Amino acid sequence: MHNLVILGASGSIGQSTLKVLRHNPGRWQVLALTAARSVDAMLRDCLEFSPRFAVMVDEAAARELAAQLKTHGSATRVLSGPAALCDVAAHPDAHSVMAAIVGAAGLAPTMAAVRAGKRILLANKEALVMSGAFFMEAVREHGAELLPIDSEHNAIFQCLPEAIQRQPGFCDLAGAGISKILLTGSGGPFRYTDIGELAHVTPAQAIAHPNWSMGAKISVDSATMINKGLEYIEARWLFNAAPEQIQVVIHPQSVIHSMVQYKDGSVLAQLGNPDMCTPIAHALAYPARVESGVEPLDFFSVGEFSFIRPDYERYPCLQLAMHACQQGQAATTALNAANEEAVAAFLAERIGFMDIARVNEATMLALGGTDVGSLDDLIALDGAARARAHNLIEELS
What does the DSSP assignment read for 103-128? Predict the structure, then answer.
C-alpha cells in the first residue's frame, strides 16, 4: 500500500486529492491529513480515510478534533503546530506528499519532505517562487522526486520527453529540441472588462472565476493574473527555462492547459476539462494512468479555441512577476509576500482591486534587491516584505 500525506487537506487541492482516492479504492493509504483549523472537514475526512495522523496547525482546533474523534472511536492520532506538519511530511512511512498548503506557510513542510527524499506532488507555488534555486538543489541533493500539480505545469510536464521529466530543475530544454514553453491562462473574469472599471471591482466579482472552482485567494490571483506570473516563475525553476523560453498565452476556454513548442515546428498540448482531479491523478499514479473521475473532453461541446496576447495595462501584476523572475530570488520572494498581504486586504475590502498591484510593485522595488544567501535569509525577507506591504495597505485604507 502506497502511503500518502496530504498537506492542506481541507483546501480545494486536498479535497480533489481525496476525490481521486475515492475513485481508486485500495491503491493509496492516507498516512496523514493536515489543516489549519477546519475541524468539521477534518473530522469528516478522518472518519472516512482513517489516517494514522491528523495535524491541526491551531492548537485549540487540534484539541477539539481529538475530542470529537475520540467520541467516534477513531484511532487517528491528532498533532498540532507547524513543527508537526514537518514531522508527518518527513515521516519514514510516507511515500508521497501532496504539498497543497497555500502560501508561505507551506514552504517548511514541503522542504521537510524534500529533505526526507519523498515523492513530492507540488501544488504549493511558494516553494519555488520563494526559494526556487534552494528548493531545486535540495530536490537533487536528497534524491526526492518532484511532480507538478498546477494544471499548467503538469500539462507542460506531460508534453516533455521522459528524459526531461526525470531531471526537474536541471534539464536542458534546447538540447531536447524544445524552443519554447507556452503557458496558458484563462485571463480571469475581467479579460473583457473596460480597464477603467477595474478600480471598482468587488471581491465577489473577483472570485467569480469563469472556468475553475478555486479558493478566494487563488481566484483573486487569477483575476489579476499574478497567478500566471507566479507560474512563470515556477516554470523557470521546474524546467530550467530562460525568460525567452517561456511565453504566456491567454486561452479563455481553459481547455488547453499548456503547450510545448519544439524546434521542428511541432507544438504538443495537453487538453482536458478544467478540473484539478486530472493533474492530481496523473501525478499520484505517474508513470501509470488511473481514473480521475473527470469526464472526457467533448470537442463538439467546446466548439472553438481562442488565444489573446496579455495586456499588461490590464494585468500589471503579471508583468511585475515576470520582471521579478528576471531580477532574482529576493524580488520574487518580496513580490509573493506582498501579494498575499494585498489580496487579503482586498478581500477584507480595505483596498481596491488595482491597489493590489500598487502594493506589490512598491514592496518589490523596496526589497527586491536584498542580498539573500540562504533559506533563512529568504524567510526573513518574506517577513520584512509583509511588514512593508502592511504599512502600504494602512496608507491606502
Answer: SGGGHHHHHHHHHTTPEEEE--THHH
Is the pTM higher than 0.85? The answer reads yes
| DSSP-derived secondary structure letter, 244 | G
Chain CA centroid to CA 284, Å: 16
d(CA 72, CA 156): 44
Task: Give the rounded distance of the alpha carbon of 310 from its chain centre.
Answer: 21
Q: Cα 163 to the chain's mean position, in Å?
A: 24
Place of cell 489543516: 35
Cis peptide upstream of residue 287 (ω within 30 degrees of 0): yes
Rounded CA separation 298/283 (Å): 23
The stretches in the chain having pLDDT less than 70 are 211-213
CA 371 to each of CA 292, 359, 364, 381: distance values in angstroms, whole numbers, following the listed order: 44, 21, 13, 9
Residue 250 is which amino acid?
A: I
Amino acid at 329: Q
DSSP letters, 247-305, are EEEE-TT--EEEEEEETTS-EEEEE--S-THHHHHHHHHTTS----SPPPP-HHHH---
Q: What is the pLDDT of residue 211?
A: 67
Residue 9: the pLDDT is 97
pLDDT of amino acid 397: 86
Q: Centre a 10 Å sphere on the Cβ of residue 4 and count the other Cβ atoms it contains.
A: 25
Q: What is the DSSP string of 200-218?
A: G--HHHHT--SS----HHH
| Cα atoms in the Cβ-side hemisphere of radius 13 Å centred on 174 | 4
The one-letter amino acid code at 78 reads V
